[in-house]
């Protein structure tokens, strides 16, 4: 899966980053709990989640949604090392069975300290168009 | 205002050091559903210009800090992750050892649609075996009733 290389010169403010779609399952939440070391029961124990006030049961780890947003960026960037800053805030709960679309837009491009940087607004939304996570990222791109 | 122990703000946790294992990088990328070969196949990572498997951006969350002193917050039935921010300075590779420290930097109270919420901000510093700061993090924990 060779990537098409992204160059700073070719990027314009307003450009969209290719969308990444994820369909989380309870199995994925258990795998992520193990791989990340986040064993908080609200992510895999339905009764625990309900008792903790999450009436519809288990929810996706915020950091798993963040991981998908980071994947959207690194799928697009020439290398994960191009990512300089990445931050997300969590809004609506993402749940197993949802379809989560990760999207991003370029909002600024500039040179700083010899690097060619782009700022991106990123978000993950569910099938109802509710935003589960919103954030920003800054990446350094190669120049032609 | 909810009471808490202000003297805990800014107190750094004891450092804890982790080995970055290839299998852990693979399993983490697999759990996200990221099949980029640079996280799975050492030869592919090297072909892409890396010395070995590289850690994906949110792999930082696997480096859990030692427990911080108790803020003694008497509030909240539910604890949620409100947000995570990272700044990256150097790549993390399989074979590195990463030392993490954390400190609470702020506690703020807000009343929103679902009632009173408390935001607990933690800052993290990640250093590699050379002592270089490879990344910094800022986590927002939310406590609500």
Question: Describe it for me?
Answer:
Chain A is an alpha+beta fold and 144 residues long. Chain A has one domain: Hotdog Thioesterase (Thiol Ester Dehydrase, Chain A, Roll). In chain A, 22% of the residues lie in helices and 34% in strands. Chain A has helices at 26-36, 46-51, 62-76, and strands at residues 16-22, 83-90, 100-112, 115-125, 131-140. In chain A, strands 1-3-4-5-2 form a five-stranded antiparallel beta sheet, with helices on one face. In chain A, strand 3 (100-112) and strand 4 (115-125) form a beta hairpin. The longest helix of chain A is centred in the middle third of the chain and has 15 residues, at 62-76. Chain B has 145 residues and is mainly beta. Chain B has a domain at 6-19 and 63-144: Hotdog Thioesterase (Thiol Ester Dehydrase, Chain A), CATH 3.10.129. The model of chain B has no long low-confidence stretch (mean pLDDT 95). The chains are: A alpha+beta (144), B mainly beta (145). Strand 2 of chain A pairs antiparallel with strand 2 of chain B, so a sheet runs across the interface.
